[in-house]
């Protein structure tokens, strides 16, 4: 079962880029809680408190007991962290979306998958463990929401795999999606093909120049014949 962590928040009435900049300057993070039968509520969170909580979590999707301060009045709301937006460079938290849930209503959530054990195909035959799915979607009541799904892969041989339908989930938890999807598998080791050395060295091709026909026809050239219409010179009288 996932831990329900407590997190304090306060309502905010201002929205927009300028308001977000002011919030961040105060060390706060803008957030919104959706869902339920109430309208969305804009919130602000303590940036350090939220970062510490995330540092000890196994994923970004877990239940939070929100203590919301609204002008001095405090209310509690159970919510699931739906999305956390990070800065692309600094990885600072930019915005958080919560989804309000009720204790007696089913919820859907992505739960991380963690394989454990050394597969037989990897240990004894040099295979490669491939993780095709790092999380699976489940359906359950908030009280049954698992924090992580651990899969024993020690018995997998070469070519063996574990599909969603094979995973033993905790009581009250049902996997969603196609049960035939492969979560993990052991692939055969990759064999590198070495180039085959040839026994005979390649011989360079020798090109012979052809004699120029015009050069062969020049007078004095070896084998050249005199012209047929040449007349002998007149003798002097």
Brief sketch in words of this structure:
The chain contains 4 helices and 13 strands.
The domain count comes to 2
- Side-by-side strand order of the widest sheet: 1-3-2-6-5-4
> What is the CATH superfamily classification of the largest domain?
Ribosomal Protein L25, Chain P
Low-pLDDT sequence parts? none
What is the N-to-C order of secondary-structure elements (H for helix, E for strand)? EHEEHEEEEHEEEEEEH
What kind of sheet is the major sheet? 6 strands, mixed, barrel
For the secondary structure, the number of strands is 13
Estimated radius of gyration: 40 Å
Distance between the termini: 137 Å
The helix tally amounts to: 4
Global structural class: mainly beta
What does the average pLDDT come to? 83
- What is the approximate shape? elongated
Q: What is the annotated CATH architecture of the largest domain?
A: Beta Barrel
CATH topology of the largest domain: Ribosomal Protein L25, Chain P
The first-level CATH class of the largest domain is given as Mainly Beta
Strand content: 35-45%
Give the helices and strands, then pairings.
Blueprint: E1 5-11, H1 17-25, E2 28-34, E3 41-46, H2 47-55, E4 63-70, E5 73-86, E6 93-100, E7 107-116, H3 120-123, E8 128-131, E9 135-140, E10 149-152, E11 161-163, E12 174-175, E13 182-187, H4 213-216
Parallel strand pairs: 1-4, 2-6, 7-10
Antiparallel strand pairs: 1-3, 2-3, 4-5, 5-6, 7-9, 8-13, 9-12, 11-13
